[in-house]
Fold this sequence. Notes:
Pfam families: TerB
Radius of gyration: 26 Å
Protein name: Co-chaperone DjlA N-terminal domain-containing protein
Number of domains: 2
Distance between the termini: 71 Å
Shape: elongated
Number of strands: 6
Largest sheet: 4 strands, antiparallel
InterPro entries: DjlA_N, TerB-like
Strand order of the largest sheet: 1-2-3-4
Domain Co-chaperone DjlA N-terminal: 157-227
CATH architecture of the largest domain: Orthogonal Bundle
Structural class: alpha+beta
Amino acid sequence: MHKMCVMGVRTSWRTVADGEFFCPDCGGDRNYLRRTGRRRLTLLGLPLLSRGAAGPVLECSACRGHFGPDALDHPTTLRFSAMLRDAVHTVTLALLAAGGTSSRAVRDTAVDTVRAAGFADCSEDELLTLLAALAADTGRLTGTYDAVTGGHCGHQGLDPCGTALAIELHEALEPLAPHLAPAGREALLLQGARIALADGSYTPAEREVLSTVGSALTLRPAEINRLLAAARTPS
């Protein structure tokens, strides 16, 4: 026998926006409706007294689940891929700026790293052009960039990473770090280490860049030192 609900609370929803998000329940990118509502006390199914506002919530178009607006803090799969690709690109440029580009092995490793990250058409000329543009932007690189030798004429007392370049590393890596598993953060640091080590040992400037990368990825100094030491040991 079906029992009638005499009294209850009903929410009347209104859609105010829409978009795409990473649905926690579906585990993938989905469309959503951003909804607000009003709760009303009902008697025999008829709305009576207002019980206040409801929401806002994000309603998944696929599973119809409701989530708080903070679900938008998690990037979509497409956005996450772009963030990771851009982070690798920024780390690569920072290491080339710190260590120079005179070594063929370094240039090849840098190009391979950026291509593997998603810039499939990246070329050596493209990286060198970007690096020269960074060098022309006052304050981004230490000293004067030599386009012929691919090296830098450093000045005593300047930040080897370059203040503006260090800021760019933090801007590229800090939003990404919360969405990477520990192994992913370590892998990103090690990619940079392989570029630095392609022509031998770390230079002080390369070491500082890698420390900045590790810090932006929320790795502890001891972890950074362990990973950089491990990268120097042939497997």
